[in-house]
Each structure stands twice: as C-alpha cells, then as structure tokens.
Amino acid sequence: MEYARRVDIFRRVKTDYAGFLTSVLWRLTGDKELFSEALQYAMLEMWRHVEKLNGKKAGAYIYRIALSANSKAWRNRIGKNGQFSDSQFEIAAEPQRRTDDAELTTKLRKSIALLPAKQSAALVMRYLQQQDYDIIAQKLGCSEVTARSNVSKAVSALKRVLRYE
Amino acid sequence: MNDKKIEDILRNLAQEHIPQDVQKITEETLRNFNETLLPPKQHILWEKIMRSQFIKFAAAAVIIIAVGFGVWLFVEGSTSVALADVLQKVEQVQAFMYKMKMKTTGNAQPTMPGGPMEMTGTILISNEYGMKMEMDMNTVVNGASRKMRQLMYVLPEEKKVYMIMPEQKQYITMEFDESVLAMMKKQSNDPRDMLKQILNSKYTDIGKSVIDGVEVEGFQTTDPACVGGMMEDVKVTLWVDRKTELPVREEMYYKINEQMQMEGVLEDFVWNLQVNAGEFEPTIPPDYNTPLPAGYKMPTASEEGAIEGLRFCEQLLGRYPKKIDMINLMNEIVSIKDSNSPTAAALKLREELKGGMDKLPEEEKAKKIMDIMRPVQSLGMFYMTLVQGKKEPVYYGDKVTAADSNSVLMRWKISDNEYRVIYGDLTAENVSTEQLAELEATISK
User: Fold this and answer.
1) Are residues B79 and B189 in the same domain?
2) Cβ A36–B141 below 8 Å, yes or no?
3) Where are the alpha helices (DSSP H) in B337-424?
C-alpha cells in the first residue's frame, strides 16, 4: 500500500479510536507513564498494521492492538521474576492511590495484562466497557457461549492469581 | 482476598474518571506521532532501544561517560598566567566534591532518553580512589514525568565503571581498557579539566563579580574543541575565588545540534576533603540484577577500536559515515531504517531487530544493543579524544571509500612533523608532513 494512503487511513483510524484507546488504556494502566508507554505501543502497532484497519474488522483489530500494547507496557514494568519492585510502585503511584484497595487494583491491572488475549479482551469488553455478550461474541468472532466462557475464565484466573498475592 | 471484591474493582474501573492530564497525554502522543508520519523517520534502532528503560539508561550512560571523558582529557601546555595559577592550585587538591545541575531539552540522538531532562547530582572525586556520582534524573515524555536515581562509580584501579539504579534494582558493570584508563589517569573527572581546556582555548577574562559574598573573577570560552567537537555551540564560564584561587562556580551552555541544548551549573565546591576507600566501594544488594554479562567491556577509545568502528559502519552503510563526531555518527547509523538501498548487513540487522528482539530475554536484548553500538561508540570516542587533544584530526568519509586504498580516510598529528593516517582500506601508517600534503592533495582533486 502506498505511503500516502497508509497515512490517510492511519489518521482517520487514530481520530476515530483516540477516545476508545484513552479510556481502555487508562483503565488498564492507571498510571500516566504506563499509559503513555502503552499508547505509544498502540500507535506503533496501528501504523504497522494500518492496512488491516481499513475495513469492518477495524474495531476488533484495535481491541487486539490496545490489549497487546497494554500487556507490553506492563511486561516492561514487571521485573525479571514476574514481581513488581516495591519502589517502582512508590514512584509510579499517585499518593491518593496508596491504599490497600489501590494496591489491589494495580495488581489486578497487572494480572489482566498477563491473561491470554481472548480472555483479557472479553473481560475488558464485559467489565470495563459493559457490553452485552452478543456484542462481545460478535467482536471476538465467536459464539455467545464462548464469549461468556472467556469472561468467566478470565475472572477465575484473576481470583486465583490474586488469592495468592 | 474476597472474590467478590475483584468484580467490584472491575466495575469501579469502568466508572473511573479519566483525568484531564491523561487526555492531554493522548493529544500530545497523537500529535507527536503525526509529526513522525510526515517524513517516515521512525527508526527501528531507536524504537527498540526506547522500548526498554534499562537499555535506554545503559546506552545513555555510555554516552554520558563518553562526554565525561571529553571533559577529562588533558591538554598540554598553558598560556595564561592567572588561570595557570588557579590550575596549579587545584592540582594540589587530593579530593573534593561539588554539586551539578544540568538541564537538556530535545533529543540529541536515539540513545539519549527522550524529552526534556533535568539532572541534579553530587560528585565526589579523589585522585586516589576515583569518582562517585549520585544523580537524580527527571525526564518528561509526553507530559509524563519519570524520575530515576542512579549511582555511578568510576574506579580507575579496578578499571571498572559501576552504574546502579536502586529503584529498578538493577546495575551495570563495565570494564574499560588501557586506552580509556590512560585518559582517566591523565585526569580524573572534574572541573579542573575544564579549567585546562579553557586555558588552552581562546578565552577571555570577563572581569570581577561577587557570588554568595565571595569576590570572584570570571573566565569564559566559546571554543567547541573544549568538549571534544561534539557540540555546535559552547559557552563555558568559570568563576574563581580571587582570594583562594579555587573555582567557585562553573556555568555551561552547549548546543549539541538544532534539536538539543544542554545547560548546567557546577557549584558548592568543597575542596581538600578527607575521603576513605569505603566511600568508593559500590554496594550492590543481592536481589539486584544486571542485564549485562560479567566482564562486559566498555567501548575502547583506541585506534584499533576506531578502525573496527569504521569497518562496522562501512558494512552497515555501504560507505564510510560522513561525519564521526558522536552525535552525527549515531544519527547516521540509526538512519539505516530509511535507506532505500540497504546493505546486506543493514538488512540483516533490520531483520534481527524487527523479528527476534522482543522474544529475547532482557539480558540478551541489552547485550545485543550494546554490542551493536560499541564499535560505533569506539569510533566516536576516539575522534573525540583527538579533537580534545588538539591532534588536528581530519576525516574524509564523505570523499573516500573502502576501494580507495591509497587515499587518506582519517589522519591526526602525532608529533611536530609526523601524522598517523588511516587509509580507505583501513590500513594505517605514520607519514611525514610532506607526505601527508601529497596524499591529501589527491583527495581534493
């Protein structure tokens, strides 16, 4: 695809989905630096795969890109052993978030970033975007039962992980 | 952990208000990305390097050290009576400390952290033990501020540099070779060297003033050679206590290129300190990790390193780099992404960076990036030492190719009537002034 055409598509998609990306990535990161990093990854991936963003499936691709960008940003933040450095929390977190609930929320966000792609997508659509299962199924390209199953598996996985935190 | 709580938190996340400054980050990111789309200049190397905070730091550290070395270089001879007296005075000092404030704007090159950066630090220098630097850096990228604390030890006896980042629980150890050690032995990193640089540059006495109640005399230079030819514009002002003849304050302004400026102040000097070896022993807690293997070598500032760098660049670019000052050199190397006719080596590198890097563990990724950069940095550092040493280096990379085995690619002065020459085929020899004139006459034709 010629360069000028790629630029056109990219600019249009970027305008259309800026609000979506801000909303999803902020809720999944909750930290300005992490958010900024994830947003940049998302932009980069959108540019790389811009030809796929020029059709009906653009929305589904953007989802995949956003969640993958979120995972990448979190993976960079997470240490070698899969654990956070406490001091990193202190630096990144806003003072008002330094409560038990805020720490739990951060751990939850990290855990979402580590979920399998379909589960995290289903979870985000269901909880963060409060979409109905038929819409989720449509966006994920699966049956409604599978969409429910993905959400359920995601929640179970989060509970399992956080129970041992 | 209450399972119900997880679902509650998830629902709360959906209701979470998005702060105004987050919206602003989005706007800035989108705008910045738009700008990169105008000319397609998203460099693969840059992108990969910038993805990893650690690699970003490690790479930047090498540059910081390289710039530091620039300041450390000894320049023989002095021309000023008054400043020479000051130099004599400070050379008697065995240990001292001072505070540094630096502020950079813009991006000099891909290996430097992006966005405006402020650094404040305390530097302790001992002729016997080396240097210890504690620095706090604050970088702003897309409106988001990132703070980083780092401790750096340069220990000439061990021939090692340690860089420790407590917040990340990470550290780097790099060994340096004789060429770098030789530079460091001539000078320990400090404002004394800038004093020597000023002494040997074209400087002016800007008269008397008063700083914190102390009567001082100011000396100023705008000679780019005093920082290794890395900067386009330089303005360094040194204020000396008229009574003690010791420096009180040093103000620096560097314009690295059109995009980046750096300004800083060295102040709060404490001269003639008592120090002990323990203050220069790096403490690395057992839970800290490093992405570099033990014994990892810093770039060398030797002729051999420079030749290796020229060979590496030639393979990558298909020609020699046009300029070899550190900034232009690094920028030229990362520009291979945009080359319409990349060399086999560039294609291979592109593929490696494009495909496999993300899958590599952090250690291998860091080592790979450092390995790529090392020969390039060696070349840049070597050239910098020649500029600072006033060895009259001249480089003809824009005219000479690898096929020009008898043409001078680079030369520098080694004595009053002798020059060292690296030819287009990367062989090197000493030539007389007359021979050099004949060789260079061929190039200009």
Assistant:
1) yes
2) yes
3) 344-351, 362-388
